[in-house]
Inverse folding.
């Protein structure tokens, strides 16, 4: 085989896969969003934006992302630093911390529902300790703050491991000579972390934050399990348009709105954590 054609032959399967399972469906969704029986129109977007639940679901989605992602970033950085410094049991600890990666979104929501529901672990513990006289239904419209906290905790527990794996791999690529030189010159552990680890982790931080923020905007199953209709989010409204209201045009428009928000957040992250051209580890 011609050596010039080999790279193109190697990427051909991936290209065909992306075209078949990403580009083609995207074109269909865009067509549904921007057209009706009368041709090109923005009516689907007007319907979505003017619906009374849209500002609430947008606010809830952005608020959940703003609350969860920074906590997950801090936790993953702490956990990754701890793992890389361990001499024994590193693989075991990393394995235990990444167990939630093997659990689906809905299963994670149901696990935390078993903790917060009226007959769940939290109520049983508080009743056994005498904090409450009888088990109470915690996840109701009367406790919107608690519903938000339950969803946030479930998301933090479920998805922190994704960022952890990426950051552990990034820290592993940083040459140890940098840390040894900094230690010789008397740099404290905090200074070594701020002056060496964080700057060198920019590419990994970019990847981890982009993936996690996009996932945060697409949160659905955990919210459905714990909050239901008490905590509307953008992806939940997309599902409602498609399967409850049978309005595929509005569902497609909502999907494109989520895509636009995800792209905007991605550009902001890439700009904030941009890596200088030609920089290498």
């Amino acid at each position: 085989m011609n050596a010039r054609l080999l790279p193109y032959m190697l990427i051909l399967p991936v290209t065909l896969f992306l075209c078949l399972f990403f580009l083609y469906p995207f074109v269909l969704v865009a067509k549904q969003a921007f057209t009706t029986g009368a041709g090109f129109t923005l009516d689907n977007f007007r319907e979505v934006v003017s619906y009374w639940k849209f500002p609430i679901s947008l606010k809830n989605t952005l608020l959940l992302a703003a609350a969860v992602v920074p906590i997950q970033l801090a936790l993953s950085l702490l956990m990754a630093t701890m793992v890389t410094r361990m001499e024994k049991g590193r693989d075991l600890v990393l394995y235990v911390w990444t167990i939630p990666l093997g659990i689906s979104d809905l299963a994670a929501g149901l696990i935390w529902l078993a903790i917060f529901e009226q007959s769940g672990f939290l109520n049983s513990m508080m009743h056994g300790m005498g904090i409450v006289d009888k088990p109470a239904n915690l996840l109701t419209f009367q406790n919107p703050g608690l519903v938000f906290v339950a969803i946030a905790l479930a998301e933090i527990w479920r998805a922190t491991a994704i960022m952890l794996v990426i950051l552990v791999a990034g820290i592993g690529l940083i040459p140890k000579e940098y840390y040894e030189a900094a230690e010789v010159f008397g740099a404290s552990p905090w200074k070594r972390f701020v002056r060496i680890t964080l700057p060198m982790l920019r590419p990994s931080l970019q990847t981890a934050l982009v993936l996690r923020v996009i996932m945060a905007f697409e949160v659905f199953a955990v919210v459905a399990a714990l909050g239901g209709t008490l905590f509307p989010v953008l992806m939940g409204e997309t599902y409602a348009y498609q399967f409850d209201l049978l309005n595929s045009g509005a569902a497609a428009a909502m999907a494109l709105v989520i895509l636009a928000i995800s792209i905007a957040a991605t550009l902001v992250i890439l700009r904030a954590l941009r890596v200088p051209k030609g920089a290498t580890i």
